Each structure stands twice: as structure tokens, then as C-alpha cells.
Records
---
Amino acid sequence: MNQWLTVENLSKRFGGIHALDSFSCHFGQGEVVGLIGPNGAGKTTFFNVLGGMLPADGGSIRFCSKQLVGQSPHRIAHFGVARTFQNLRLIRQVPVIENVMLAFRHQSGEHLVPLAIRWKKVRAQESENHEKALAILKKVGLLEKADDLADALSYGQQKLLTLACCIASDADLLLLDEPLAGVSPVMIDIVLEKLRELKNAGKTLVVIEHNLEVIMNEFDRVIFMDSGRKVCEGLPDEVRNDPRVIEAYLK
């Protein structure tokens, strides 16, 4: 398997607490890997370190031969890594479609020189991105909400919008932090359908999740964490039946 992402001996401390303690794992292209464990296991800290929002205290993260440790969040996103957050992180007072358009990478309008000199090209790209954003919103079922403020969406719709932003980024690696938490059963089916489409497109998905049914039916592999360490990993059924998992989490 092509290991797009390899994590070796990753460490992160907060005072005397080891949020990540020599944590190692790997992820292959087109895999959907579940990251599970009790509260405080280190799952979100792992995402924050991987995405550059927290500095690592030790270890290595290599993605497509690039070293991510020490890189800025902007640079890591440029390499093709995108993520969602438990608190969504949307720009709530701008329209839905603008949230999606801001997620596109390599926009000419981000730089002053192209904006000033090649304004026609910038305008043409903005028009193209607007059409792409509409197509993405249609794909996730939010087309009719395109001009609404993000804050006006229901919680489930906001979750779909964060997923739409990940799709717009065209990232190869998606880090999804509890994408189904607090979402209605109907909305869960929609989100899962989009995750399957991303997998089929060759994207690698790392998903923090607590829904046992989803874990068993949707994930290729599962990594169980506790106290910043990897306790075990394997096929969903193998992990579910591991005595250490049963004792710590699933009993």
C-alpha cells in the first residue's frame, strides 16, 4: 500500500501531561481510517499537531515525502491537507457560497501583484470558482442555501458546509473531527455518502468518530488511542473485540 502519511514517535506535552506519547501510525492512499478512544485520548491533539496548529515536541510526520513537523498551517494546507473541527470554524456572517470559495487553493486574487496587473485573469478565475462552488453545494445538498449566511444554516447543514469546504480545497488528505456528532439520521446518510465518494476519488480520510455502527461499516481500519498512545489498530471487528478496547472504551 502506498503510505501517503507516516507518523513516527510523535510527542506533545502540556506541562506534565503527555497528550501524544511516542505515537506512530501510517495511512495509505484511498483509505478511510477511524481514530477512536475515550475523551482525552489525544485524538484532536493529533489532528492539531498534524495540521500545524500545535508544534510537536518530538517525532516526525511525513506526507507524500514532505516533512510536516515545523511547517505552518498554511503551508501544510498547501501540501494538500484539510480538516474539519468540532466547533466547525465557519465564517458565519458571510454567505454559504463564499465560505466554499475561500477554501479553493492557488487563487490568483490572494496575491497583490496578480490582482493589480492581471485583474482580468483574476476576475475570470473568480467566476470559474463561483461555478465550481455552486456545483459542490449541489453535490452536498446545499445549493438552495448558497446565498444564505452560514450562521442561518442548521447544525447539520453547517456540518455539510464544512465538508463542502474540504471538497473545495481538493486536498488529498482529509482530517475529519467527529463529522457525524449531533447530526440527524437523515443528515448522517448524506455525510456518509459524500465520504464514500471522496474515498472512491482516491482521497485518504482520517476520521475521529464515536458511532460504533459507522466505525464497523464504513472504516477500512481503526486505530484505538488512550492517554496519547496507540493501544491497538486493525480491522474494525478486530479492534472492537480487543480486550484492551473493551475494558477502556466499548464495555
Note: Residues 38 and 193 are 26 Å apart (CA to CA).
---
Amino acid sequence: MSKPHYKRIMLKLSGEVFGNREHGHSLDAQVLAKVASQLIEVSEMGVEISMVVGGGNIFRGLAGEQAGIMRSQGDYMGMLATVINALALQSALEKAGAETRVMTAIPMQNVAEPFIRRRAIRHLEKGRIVIFGAGTGNPYFTTDSAAALRASEIDAEVMLKGTKVDGVYDSDPSTNPDAVRYDKLSYTEAISRDLQIMDTSAFSLCRENGIPIIVFDFFKDHELRRVMEGESVGTLITKGC
């Protein structure tokens, strides 16, 4: 097996990827199993995997605000949704034989460990897949920002945003057949073109700490492994192109 291109990664997955809209399931066992198999394939290459998961399949703070819930309260509810997803993914991974840890920004000692930087790094060094839940622990910050923050804290070499699209486009490829995919972008270009891949604070954190971002189709078979093997997959976002 070839040596991985990256040793320690941060993978961000939105909560929507865990559900099945056609069947009305916010959590789908088959999807979770597929996610787990992709992660284990890469873990067996010797890659240290950390993750941040969203909670949009269960609850979104902004949606709560539209329903009359205070924004800060809705954001905390969204953080709890990310913990549900983290625990569901942990279960799928452990069923497949992986060793995992869930760490949360909000203390929940009966279900997960509190986030402690040195402890998280130690888990990674021991080959455990570490899933970070509850975002940053603060309202008004997205899980993209949480992923960029944790990536910076644990010295991740790259931040990967796994989606259902094979990269970043100049417009929505699902509605525009002429949409153009970018192979490479700078942080500044991604922000100035308002491509809405991630929020500005997440881009800023990655830029300040020199963490490249790769946006790719997580659900294409073996695509995560191809990224780890150094292939040109998806869209690469760095300081300069």
C-alpha cells in the first residue's frame, strides 16, 4: 500500500449526507455504513482521521429562528443535532471494526469526551478516528468554522469538505448544465466570487494557518482514498494558484 499524501486530515461532512430524503429518514443506516467504509479504507493506509459533522438533517439554527426560536437557542439545538450524528457515525464505525472517539465542545460526559486538544491528538496518534461534535460550542458559528478551528488546533495537514458534488462550480451544476468546475482556487477568489462553499471565517482560519482545502465528491467510490494517494481530485483551495 502506498504512503498517504497526507498524514493527518480534517474531514467535514454536512448532516444532510447522513439522511435519505426519499424515504424521509434523517439518519439512514446504509448511508452511515457507506461513510464508515470510506473512512476505514483510508484509516488502514495509516491516515489519522479527525472529523466535524453538521446537524442539518435533524435541526438547523436558522430554520429554528424562522419558526420563532431565538437564534442563539436554535444554534445550541443545532449543536445537539451534530452530537446525535457523531454518535450515529461512531456506532457505524465501531460495527465495522474501527476504534473511535467522540469529543464535544459542550460537556456531555455521559456520552462523549470533552474536547481537549492534547487528548484529541493522542487519540489520533493511536489510530482512532476522532469525531468532533457540538460545533465550536458557541452560537453564530457554523460547523465549517468548527472544522477549520479544530483543524488548526490539531495541526491537520489538509481540510477536506466531502459533498455530493465533485468540486466547486461557478454556479449550481444541478440547475445549470453549463456550470464550470474549478480545479484550483485561492482563498481570496473563493470569498470574492461568493461561491458559498464555506463561510468567510472558516476560509480565514485556513488561510491564516496555511491549511489547504479540498472540496470533493465523498460518495464516489474510493474518492477519499484517491485524495490520500495525492491524485488531483475535486477543487483545491490554497493561498495561491
Note: Helices lie at 29-43, 61-66, 71-95, 117-125, 143-153, 187-192, 200-208, 223-228.
---
Amino acid sequence: MASTVEVVLKENLEHLGSIGDVVRVRRGYARNFLLPRGLAVVASRGNVRQIEHEKAIQAQRIAKLRADQEQIVAELAEVTVMIAKEAGDDGKLFGSVTANDVLEGLTARGVEVEVDKKKLIMPDRPIKEVGSYEVGVKLPYGLTATIKLEVKTRA
């Protein structure tokens, strides 16, 4: 019968647990994988207290960063991006509005928040008509900001 050892996880491991969990694993798994890679430490009272302390500090840091991101969400909610495209008499665009167009509009507005085009949540259908739209922006910590998008005809 294989012997086991208790370890305290220092990293989130998908099939094992999250930071600070005390888990029982096989001795060889701990000795050959978890301990050398710094993913866990042998469970002792001191190690458990140390990990819990680090976990509390990390939680405070995340709370502060999340508050900063919430402020960015509020700033982006007030932004309206205007995009001028060539369109026909019926209001249909020659082409469509893309994520790159939205990013260019954001930089033209002077928005200081750095947004990756992969983080933009464009409407389900391509924007091919003049009008008002809402575009989402995925931010860290599960937050999503909404930007107003106004598509006008180019004069």
C-alpha cells in the first residue's frame, strides 16, 4: 500500500486544490513533482500559518486591484466613441465596423486605458448600419465595462 503525505499547496492546481489547502498526496508525487517545483510544502503548523498569511496578503492586494478596475469600468461607461464610415442613402455601411475601428476611436478620444482587441465584446451581428451600439470590454477580476458606440455617415 502506497504511503501518503500531507502538503500545503502554494499554487492553484486544477485537480488537487487551491492555494492554502492541506491535501494528502502520495509520497512520490510530493517528492518528485510538487516540492521541487515549489507548488507545495510539507504540512507543518509553521508552513500552514505562513501560507495562510501569504493568502491574506494576496487577498488584500486583489481587493485593491479590483477597486482600481471598478474605477476604470466607471470611466469607460462614460465614453462614447464616434465612428464615421461611408454609407449608402439607406444607412447601410460599405463594409462593417470592426474591433480595430473601435480601438482607433478609443485612442482618438484620448482614453488612457489600454484595451486589447481580443477583450472587446462586439455585438453578435456585424455592425453594418448607421446607429447606436454598445460594446463590452472584458477587464481582469471578472469585470466588464460597456462603451457606447455611435456609427455615423462620413460627409
Note: The chain is about 35% helix and 35% strand.
---
Amino acid sequence: MTIEIIPYTPALAIHIKTLNEEWLTQYFQIEENDTKQLSNPSTEIIAKGGFIYYAQVDDKIIGTATLMKIDTAIYELGKMAVTEKFQGKGIGKLLLEHCLHEAKNLAVKQLILYSNTKLNAAITLYRKYGFTEIPMENGHYDRANIKMHLILTP
């Protein structure tokens, strides 16, 4: 199985929505901010200086992750999803590594992410790559009970 990480194009916009809705409805619920970002990725992520990446196998999109711009030094790693059939095959790891590589190329100083400790595999992956827990502000996502960050060195 050859996995290719490809960048967002408007023709692929639907995939960020379907992939994220799959896991959100399985574990939580879709929040207003999710609907806004997932329904309008060109406006809500790309036009605001962010990036969307997809994992592709044989012309089939099976995963996604984003780098959402907070400011020039800080991006949020988010909207990371791998379709259930392809979970446990290292695709999340490849998406994360790609995002880390791209963030370093952009000279991003810090990546943040919001998650939930119920998503043990995701939290374990983030910790493996050096993300550590930091205090979380209220109101970003109702489902989030952990905020993590990674300081990137040049």
C-alpha cells in the first residue's frame, strides 16, 4: 500500500468534511465551529493562511490533517482524521510528520492542538512526537479536555 500526502484543492474539499464527521459523530458531536470550518475549508482555513493535507491510497482519500494559522508564529494542528478502515496502519503518523515538516518550513515556532483524553491513540501519538500538555482556555471546543503544544526549533 503506497500512501501519498497531497495538498488541498477545491475539488477535494468534501473529504475534510466527510472524514472528520465520521469520527466526530462516533465519539462526540459536531460543534458549530466544526460545521463552519468543514463546510467552508477554502474560506475558513486556506484563506486565513492555513493548510489542508490529505492521505491518499490508489486515488482514494483516506485521511486528512490541517495546519490552521493562529498568527505568524503559532499554528493549530487540527481536523486530523483517518477513515476507520485504514486506522492502525500508520497513516495518522504520516499526516502528523508531514504537518511537522511543513510547519518547520514555514518557520512556525509553536504548534498547538486540542483533543480529548478519550482518544488514547491520538494522545499517545502526540506525546511520542514531543507534544506536552498546557493549560486550556474555555470555549475552543466543547469536546476538548486537553490542550497540547510543541515548540519547534529552527
Note: Helices lie at 13-27, 32-39, 41-46, 91-105, 120-128.
